[in-house]
Automatic annotation (TrEMBL):
Keywords: Oxidoreductase. This is Putative dehydrogenase. It comes from the Bacteria. The lineage of its organism: Bacteria, Pseudomonadati, Bacteroidota, Cytophagia, Cytophagales. Belongs to the Gfo/Idh/MocA family. It comes from Runella defluvii. Residues 131-244 form the GFO/IDH/MocA-like oxidoreductase domain. The keyword DNA repair does not apply. GO terms for molecular function: nucleotide binding; oxidoreductase activity. Residues 2-119 form the Gfo/Idh/MocA-like oxidoreductase N-terminal domain.
């Protein structure tokens, strides 16, 4: 039995805890919040044995095998290091941290302590993602030449809310733009050039961002994200012999269609009774049982590469989180 703890009982943590109930051999043991009453309410709802009013208390819990960190972006670095310092394995929500320097420190700490660490990029573990990669690698749609992906919804326009709060790591890029960037990385790897354009909110975070990533072989990715409007939130991967259309909302999709040049199509469906977080939970459980310190499907190198691309996009936007970017984000290099 893998005994889980949760730091930060917010909206995503509720979805995670619901899906945890569908995973055989896993149980929610403890939850921590700065508000103990909130932790107790969450623990009662999901059957956790312990509820803590501080994060120092949860890492002292003797009945934990791993902690899921679901606090706001700006606390991922601090909370991950807190758990690793106690040699507690960590699954930390995306974005892994605010910049590559922080992610490098997290990775170095995990490796120094020989402790498991993984970014909770749940989309990587969904069944459609595995099938999509299988089709691409088979050559069924030929060499992949392009990709288009967006993610947009109309967020609460109250500028005091987290999405617009710079002190909490707000902004469309790190919150939802990370998904299109992830897909481009998964399909193409590291880009050669990055260009972007964004509009800023009054709080000086990006409200809408468009990105163009180009690669040495001539392929490209057109990506966008916005808090201003409900978009189609679909994705298309273009190959020389066909294309893959991932249905909305593509990052949590249950279906995609392959369209071939000869006019034929294939539709693949992936029904599930859950939000979809159980797949990353199962991967962590397998890694812990096998004594592995990182996932083969989403490695620490992948997380380092992804944050490097995000840093590069921020550089082109001149978006700086003053209280968290201890040094300027590094110029993008392959």
């Amino acid at each position: 039995m893998i005994r889980w703890g949760i730091i930060g009982p917010g909206r995503i943590a509720h979805k995670f805890a619901q899906d945890l109930k569908h995973v055989e051999g896993a149980v929610l043991m403890a939850v921590a919040s700065r508000d103990k009453g909130r932790a107790e309410t969450f623990a009662n709802e999901y059957g956790a044995k312990y509820a803590y009013g501080s994060y120092d208390e949860i890492v002292a819990c003797p009945e934990l095998d791993v902690v899921y960190i679901a606090s706001p972006h700006v606390f991922h670095f601090e909370h991950t290091l807190l758990c690793l310092s106690a040699n507690i394995p960590v699954l930390c929500e995306k974005p892994f941290a605010m910049n590559r320097l922080q992610v490098e420190t997290m990775v170095e700490s995990a490796r120094m302590r020989n402790t498991f660490l993984m970014e909770a990029f749940w989309t990587r573990f969904l069944p459609w993602t595995h099938k999509m990669l299988e089709i691409i690698e088979s050559g069924a749609i030929g060499k992949v030449m392009g990709l288009k992906a967006d993610f947009g919804f109309r967020a609460n326009q109250d500028l005091t809310q987290r999405a617009y709060n710079k002190d909490l790591g707000g902004g469309a890029l790190l919150d939802i733009g990370i998904y299109p960037v992830f897909l481009a990385y998964l399909v193409f790897g590291m880009p050669y050039e990055i260009a972007s354009h964004c509009t800023f909110a009054e709080t000086k975070v990006d409200e809408s961002t468009g990105m163009t990533l180009t690669y040495r072989d001539g392929s490209f990715a057109f990506l966008s994200c916005t808090f201003r409007a409900e978009t189609t939130s679909d994705a298309v991967i273009y190959g020389e012999k066909g294309m893959i259309f991932i249905e909305p909302r593509w990052h949590e999709s249950k279906a995609f269609t392959v369209k071939y040049q000869d006019g034929t199509t294939e539709r693949f469906t992936f029904d599930r009774p859950t939000w979809g977080y159980q797949y990353e939970i199962e991967e962590v459980n397998i890694c812990l049982r096998e004594g592995r310190k990182e996932s083969d499907w989403w490695t620490l190198r992948d997380s380092l590469n992804l944050i490097q691309i995000l840093d590069a996009v921020r550089n082109t936007m001149e978006l700086v989180y003053e209280d968290h970017d201890d040094v300027p984000t590094r110029p993008f290099k392959l």
